[in-house]
Amino acid sequence: MEKTTVDLSLLSDVLNEYAAVKGSLITILQHTQEIYGYLPKEAIELISDQTGIAASEIIGVATFYTQFRFEPVGKYLIMLCQGTACHVNSSELILETIKDELHIEDGETTEDGLFSLKCVACLGCCSLSPVMMINENTYGSLTPEKTKKILKELREAAV
Amino acid sequence: MRIVIGQGSCGIAAGAEKVRKALLNTDINAESISITGCIGMCYLEPIVDIYDDDNKLTRLVKVSEADAPAVAAYIKTGDKTMIEKLIVTDEDSEFLSKQTRIALRNCGIINPENIEAYIEKDGYTALKKCLCDMTPEEVIEVIKTSGLAGRGGAGFPTWFKWNAARQSQGEEKYLICNADEGDPGAFMDRAVIESDPHNLIEGMLIGAYAIGASHAVVYVRAEYPLAIKRLTNAIAQAQEKGIIGENIFGTDFSCDFMIKAGAGAFVCGEETALIESLEGHRGMPRLKPPFPAQSGFWRKPSNINNVETFANVAWIINNGGEAFAAMGTEGSKGTKVFAVTGKVKRSGLVEIPMGKTLRDVIFDIGGGMKTDKEFKAVQMGGPSGGCIPASLIDTVIDYKALGATGAIMGSGGMVVMDESTCMVGMAKFFLDFTAKESCGKCIHCRIGTKRMLEMLERITKGKGKEGDIELLEELCYSIKDGALCGLGQTAPNPVLTTIKYFRDEYEAHIRDKKCPAGECSDLIEYSIEADKCRGCTLCAKNCPVGAISGTVRNPHIIDTDKCIKCGKCFTVCKFGAVKKA
Ligand SMILES: Cc1cc2nc3c(=O)[nH]c(=O)nc-3n(C[C@H](O)[C@H](O)[C@H](O)COP(=O)(O)O)c2cc1C
Ligand code: FES
After folding, report:
1. pLDDT tens digits, residue range B402-428?
2. Long-range contacts made by residues B352-356, C-beta under 8 angstroms, separation at least 24?
3. Nearest to B224 among A64, A89, A124 (CB)
4. CATH superfamily of the A76-158 domain
5. In CATH, B525-580 is 3.30.70.20
6. Looking at domain B2-91, what is its CATH homologous superfamily?
7. What ipTM did this prediction achieve?
8. Across the interface, which of B45, B186, B265 has its CB nearest the CB of A64?
9. Between chains, do B571 and A93 touch, taking CB under 8 Å as contact?
């Protein structure tokens, strides 16, 4: 029943530019994830073909770094900071709030495909801790109430 | 008249871009509105700086979109009453006036997206001086005189590393900048790149000239998209001006520049792991020796320095090594940037000369605690560092003095904690981090950190046993001795320092099954103080398990058997009636 909808032609520019440049695997994977939102199996096979790097090695590299994922993510990717400053300023409460509101755990996506949650270590905005980043936007000085409001607004904006 | 909006990541997160758009929507001349990077007063963002025609500054803080009309009216009329409440207080201004800025000298002042702004501040004159008037050996000599030591954590003398790379045989060499900034809770390097990218480029080019490298590489962590964007832009501008590329300033020195984005792995901040990652592999550290100076990127001689290290270089060349060495202590020269965060009142970037004390940073500049609780400890050096207790607040900022506490200078993260932070919990927090980030290459780190984490988890759950502390200590020392790289060798530091200074807290968890800070949820109980409770029902409404009962305007009660200790009642109560013990 797995039907592939992965359009591999989207990768050709990236591969043309980097496939022959040694040391570019991580860069290629980053571009691939930017295009598809994750690393599709088909794309990994194509990258392997074009770079001559074994698929097993590519998977080895991709699984080493937290940035890469093998499943599509929701429309909104919530990156919740669990760094030291955020920890000291109760990021745990924000995590609980998001889990309660969305009924997902770290690394999961809501059933409606809207939200994915990923805990990260420091977004570099520690002065505004606790902090989360949703897609391109950073939200700081979070409280449970503020978090709920942000999620609500995004949910409403999506329909 | 110039209107400048602070647009570092913090500023933007606080709403600076919205403020800029709102200002553009007023009748203020759009050409007079520009941006700058991180001013460092992150706790007051968004910040709008208004420079009058004599370049006199009026600084507005915590500006919102709604304030735009008032700002526009002020600019038109010069009537300060309209913006009185936004003007930074004298007390807050001291946050900056008490600092000495070298690495951050242009941050929050110039437009980071415009090379001309950097050039106006004597930008690239140091590079020109090096290339046209100095030999590489002379450059290294100035750096030696300055006493500049690596700001990435270890504090190794920069001249020594440069000299080793210079002496190393091979026609192709690499100069690498470590902008992985892995310490969670630190953002000095992000601020430098976002706010003054040309300063980094200039420092790196001088370094490249000194060691004889023709390739410069910056490894930036992926979580810093704005830094990557501004640096990419700056590199393009410098290339256009011929400052990067072939025959720079008409000399026979040539150097190309490349950015590589990290992909999220703490260990890649370790220099040999960073090199592995640059080559497109899993970021597993290499065995040293050979050191990168002999065999680094693509096995060619390479030199790696931290962002802040490079950010000092141009200043040192222009002002002389002696001027830099005049600041600081016997063993630690110049200034150091700290990212001061946590429970501190004024949170942001602080650059001060070495030799000041922790008290100067946390209380004098940082303004002390933002809560009504007492200062308890400060965490320095992140997962490789330790917690320094309140009793050592007068410790001098100096590599040796800080090292003697069991913590380290680190890269500049300073997370301030008050009495509400549990120190066993803090140790657990870091071990959770290092256990996840251990690359798995050596057993001591891979399994050792996991075992330590398990023990700390047990202790914070009230399942600790007599002898656990001693066992933890023993594990710490064997991991320190046995681990392959700096990650494992330093991972025990958060545990060792908390045991050293807060042993009683460990004992309270183990013997009395109590968490004195009231943070470990398994060891606390919530109750409602009847005389403080107004019966507003808010707690009962928020309790996810219906453990709170009571009627309107009458004191409520928590059923401790049902209570899951989520703490919601504690956070929502407006009258401080919920007690945690
Ligand atoms: C686990 C680990 C993580 C590190 N993370 C960083 C980092 O994020 N940034 C950094 O500049 N140095 C980091 N270092 C230190 C580097 O290995 C290296 O010493 C430093 O980049 C050298 O530059 P410097 O001499 O200018 O300090 C880390 C070291 C270890 C062991
Ligand atoms: S610790 Fe959360 S943003 Fe740095």
Report:
1. 999 999 999 999 999 999 999 999 999
2. B352/B98, B352/B99, B352/B100, B352/B397, B353/B100, B353/B327, B353/B328, B354/B327, B354/B328, B354/B329, B354/B397, B354/B398, B355/B327, B355/B328, B355/B329, B355/B396, B355/B397, B355/B398, B356/B396, B356/B397
3. A124
4. Glutaredoxin (3.40.30.10)
5. yes
6. Glutaredoxin (3.40.30.10)
7. 0.94
8. B265
9. yes
